[in-house]
TrEMBL record:
Pfam families: RVT_1. Residues 145-407 form the Reverse transcriptase domain. Keywords: Nucleotidyltransferase, RNA-directed DNA polymerase, Transferase. This is Reverse transcriptase (RNA-dependent DNA polymerase). One of its GO terms (molecular function) is RNA-directed DNA polymerase activity. It comes from the Eukaryota. It comes from Popillia japonica (Japanese beetle). Transmembrane segments: none annotated.
Amino acid sequence: MPATAAQKRQAAYKKAQDLYHRDPTLLEEKVITGQSLLEEQMVPDLVDVKTLYEGIFSSRSPPDIEPVADPKTSDLVYRPIDRDKIVTLTKNWSNSSPGPDGILVPQVKRCPAKNWSNSSPGPDGILVPQVKRCPAHMLKALFNVILYRRHIPSLWLQSRTILIYKEGDRKNPTNWRPITIGSAVQRLLHRILARRLPVAEAPFDPRQRGLRNIDGTLANILLLDHYIKSRRLARKSCNIVSLDIRKAFDSVSHHSILRALDRFGVHHAFTDYISTILQGAYTTISVGHQTTGPIEVRRGVKQGDPLSPVLFNMVLDELVCGLKNESNGGTIAPGSQVAAVAFADDLVLLQDRDLDMTLALDKTLQFCAARGMTLNPTKSVAIFATVFEGRSVVRTKPVLRIAGSFIPSLQDLSTIRYLGLPFGSTGLRKPSVHHLSLWLKNLEKTPLKPDQKFGILKTYLLPRLHFGFQSPATTEPVLSEGDRRATSLFTPPSGTAALECSSCVSIYLKFFTVDLRVFSKITHSLIFGGGCNPHHRGTCEEFSAAGFFSGAGRPASLLSFLARGAPPHSYWRENIVTMPMSMGLQDAAHDQTSRAWLRQTPRGWTGRDFVRAVQLRTANLATKSLPYIPAGERRCRAGCNKIESLAHVLQACPVTHHEHIKRHNSIVAKVARHCRRRGWTTEVEPRVRHADSQLFIPDLAVHQPSNTTTICDVQVW
């Protein structure tokens, strides 16, 4: 351990830089919690981890022989191509059309996600960039042969598992989420197959919001909030139970997965492939710098595999449909009842009557037990409200049991978190920004460079608040307070008052290619635009068409209310144009190359270099043309009879003109040397006479072997 204060600062800086480049999520956790960077991170004991997951993964999957009550059919399935096509594929790798039912080249090309390159390799050591460089027609042929033969490489049965901390005691292995990493080639195949399965269009029940082409979290939040408030205003009872399925993804029976595939009418070729990858699979679990031995996986789906959420949702869909058909549910609007809403394994039961809730809970317990899953009563919560003397009263005494243990009932002033937002007995609680000041104070003390602090702020801290703001309880004062606190970390350079700090920071972040704006201007984009969520969110019509708010007008009207006002793009366009010195920002608005240094700081730059570059780009330097300088005192201090604007200093002032020309010529010479090293011929400032007798003198002409001449003009600020 470092002894002196200087050694501690050096060690903290080194640790911060290491975490920023290697594990920014852990750095975010330390910033949020205020932990010391030098404090050793606690992890579960390897023996405890192995004991826990051997008991889960290696236990036998219970048989699932219950007949399917409501079979479904789907056209979005994989059917193998015929044997002749397979022979052709193995002989002719360039064949690009295996038939309508096989995997096609366009499907291979469009499936890799934008951030897939950052994904880790599997046990086979194949890197994601290597997979992306592989010709699509070869991958297509490989995938079709594997699916037709029902034989997969042995390395595809191997995987490695890492643990991601959730919350609670860090020494308890149940507070960590296992993420399993398989072969990168197999993950690409599973991305393709996941798109071929019935995910968005049919035939999942619309009350299962996970993996939909719409913001399912927002839909569930609005529906639950509307149910609580509407029943309270109508002075009627309501019963809500939020259920926690213990290790749901890790414990679901393999037999139940195959049964769900049959229920959806998936072709037996795909079912056989799933059966093959489930049998004989094993994984190793890494804890800190230690790794367990191989652990056989006899149940569950791999968290981190593209197919796993689809397979799990197919299993849980039967429960959601069964509750809808066999119970009355909670009244969302006259003639519209909802018995359950789900987002992956987050399941909430809604019933108007106590007796119906008991029956729905019993059915859920029976369903989970038959599929190898169990409910956790300690992490489940019930909200019961009844009517007493004409007013709604919360019942705080537990009445429902799971395996002999009571489900805790929500107290009158307590809250629960559902999909990341706080709910109480009166509905969704008002979002708060009180955590932001603490986060910013911790971020300010963290030994990071200025651009790195901006990166942590826009990537991790502010999106946490963005998500909480997509709520009908959000108010304008809350958003304005978020503005004030977010910009309090950044103060304008000494002596400059031309730009408001909030505008400078927000514009800088916009040039950082991040859809991040002042909080009070982002409500529209949080609901219907990108916001902090890059996925498609949908419109009011799409929510209704998806069956989310069938017959319920208020949740849909809440969407329109939340999306009130014009899109924020016009706000920022006007803000930039009306600023005193914004020409540089306007010129660079459509030039990604000139602002590439904002996304990736050039090698060798110090934090001071980055700050000065931002000041230069935003015209936020201490010249005498700033608005707070009296009009009669704005002449150039070098003696010029011109106003000392930034453009004058950089372009026209005689004192700086020589250095400006010198820098311009050095850049032209550097570009010319680079071109000559490539074997191209260059001419510096050639004199070219146009056909209309006009003379042109470009900075550089580059002649390439393909009889192509490129004219370069260098601009120096």
